[in-house]
Specification:
Oligomer: single chain
CATH architecture of the largest domain: 3-Layer(aba) Sandwich
Keywords: Signal, Transport
Helix content: 40-55%
InterPro entries: Bact_solute-bd_prot1, SBP
Number of strands: 11
Structural class: alpha/beta
GO cellular component, one term: cell envelope
Organism: Candidatus Cohnella colombiensis
Number of domains: 2
CATH topology of the largest domain: D-Maltodextrin-Binding Protein, domain 2
Shape: globular
Subcellular location: Cell envelope
CATH superfamily of the largest domain: Periplasmic binding protein-like II
Largest sheet: 9 strands, mixed
């Protein structure tokens, strides 16, 4: 009897041990950390099961982005049942103000949307988190290298990119063909300044009174776009940045004077409006839709969809189309090259940064921020906002993901966009913050106001060049500027 009891006890113990092992195995197989489809398995070798909340402040990135916030929060919680993602919406108008207010109060969100250029601003405030330790090599490899570098400063990875877009120009297909412009060849091979100048002169249409009904080219240069025209064209004029590789200020180069002469020349030709300095972003797009210009700038891939939607409104005759607009097929085009330089597109990289408040977050919380920031910037979420913006995703996981809605696209524009993106260059991470700050000061106090005066024909290209050169020598010394 005692022997039977000992055997029964032993068997019960074995059963309990086997049950415990089975339960542990089941928990491991069903946890997010063990799931091959879960981002967490790539971010960290061990994911804690402690409850945690990650906050994010995000603007309306695309048409339906904010409408999906609830679904995004639920999906994240399904991947990581112990974690909660709490998203606060912001408008484009108050996004920066909201973020700066929270940063100044010492209680920023864990994640915020910014333009990559703002990374250095928040790094200088010492509120950014380096995610290198919580992002695995597998996760980092999902992102295109050029876009990834835009959120790096030195060796630190302060965030992850959401997309890379190219600032281009765009033409009315019918007008381009009427002017005899081989726009497909331009999309594939680009064009020089002389070729561009000749092309837009052919796009000018005058009425019987000699007045211009249609310009060859219009670019927004007023308000928030006051520096865009010059900076975008400068990229392909041998001036890809304010500083060359030797950290000498580059706008003292003769290439800068050549660029200014070209910009003024297009207005003097009559191919651009004399009142160019007063044209803002809204007016330049209105001029494109109403047939007052053959080519417009700056352009983005999403402008194709904006034109398509307006065309649909015109066909529906419902009164919601832009007043006096015409049907227009938008053709994406690269900016011309100046001074015999190579084409370098102006890249727009936006994305998510990781922030800390007054109190340093735990290592576990930083890991969770890494999970959330990777979740927001890759896979199906990135696939859908990129799709709505007519952009090629910058992560393999997004390129492989299905989208909720297919949009009709011009195949030639897709190819052109891919060519322009392939020529994008990484962000400069070697420029010291003091030099960058001095360059921005010259931009604000000299370059932008002088450009407006140049466009208004109040000063000559030489006068603007001389003013910028004098300011640069004063800031950086005679040995700190390019002399050629």
């Amino acid at each position: 009897m005692k022997k039977s009891l000992r055997v029964s006890t032993l068997m019960l113990s074995v059963i309990m041990i086997l049950s415990l092992l089975s339960a542990c195995a089941g928990k491991a197989n069903n946890s997010p950390a063990a799931s091959s489809g879960s981002p967490s398995s790539s971010n960290s070798n061990s994911v804690s099961e402690n409850k945690d909340t990650i906050t994010a402040l995000l603007p309306p990135v695309s048409a339906n982005y904010q409408a999906r916030f609830t679904d995004m929060e639920k999906e994240f919680n399904q991947l990581y049942p112990h974690l909660t993602l709490k998203i606060e919406p912001a408008s484009w108008e108050d996004m920066t103000q909201k973020l700066d207010t929270q940063v100044n109060a010492g209680s920023p969100p864990d994640i915020a949307w910014v333009g990559a250029a703002s990374t250095s601003k928040y790094a200088a405030l010492d509120v950014l988190l380096d995610l290198n330790s919580v992002l695995s090599d597998e996760v980092k490899a999902d992102y295109d290298a050029v876009a990834m570098k835009y959120f790096q400063l030195g060796d630190a990875q302060y965030g992850l990119p959401a997309y890379l877009a190219i600032h281009s120009i765009g033409g009315n297909k019918q007008f381009l063909e009427d002017a005899g412009i081989d726009w497909r060849n331009v999309q594939q091979n680009g064009w020089t300044y002389d070729q561009f100048r000749d092309a837009i002169s052919k796009g000018v249409v005058k009425n019987d009174k000699g007045e211009t009904d249609r310009y060859g080219f219009v670019f927004a240069t007023s308000g928030v776009t006051s520096k865009d025209y010059l900076s975008i064209m400068a990229k392909s004029a041998g001036l890809p940045d304010y500083f060359d590789t030797n950290l000498k200020f580059s706008y003292t180069s003769k290439n800068f004077l050549g660029l200014l002469e070209g910009i003024r020349q297009l207005i003097d030709d009559g191919s651009m409006p004399k009142e160019l300095s007063s044209i803002d972003a809204g007016k330049r797009w209105n001029m494109f839709l109403t047939g007052q210009t053959m080519i417009t700038g700056k352009g983005l891939a999403s402008f194709e969809n904006s034109a398509r939607l307006n065309n649909a409104k015109i066909k529906a005759n419902d009164g919601s189309a832009v007043a006096n607009s015409i049907e227009a097929d938008y053709i994406a085009l690269p900016v011309p090259t100046f001074n015999g330089a190579q084409y370098i597109p102006t890249s727009v990289v936006d994305g998510y940064i990781a922030l800390r408040g007054k109190k340093a977050p735990s290592e576990e919380h930083i890991k969770n921020i890494g999970l959330a920031i990777n979740f927001l910037s890759s896979g199906s979420i990135a696939a859908n906002y990129s799709n709505e913006l007519f952009l090629t995703p910058i992560t393999k996981s997004a390129r492989d993901a299905a989208v909720l809605e297919e949009y009709p696209r011009n195949e030639d524009n897709i190819k052109a966009d891919q060519i322009m993106m392939s020529k994008a260059v990484p962000a400069r991470t070697d420029i010291p913050t003091d030099l960058a700050a001095a360059a921005i000061k010259i931009e604000t106090e000299v370059i932008v106001p002088k450009l407006q005066a140049l466009l208004a024909n109040e000063i000559t290209p030489q006068a603007m060049y001389d003013a910028v050169k004098a300011a640069a020598i004063k800031a950086f010394g005679a040995d700190g500027v390019v002399v050629d």
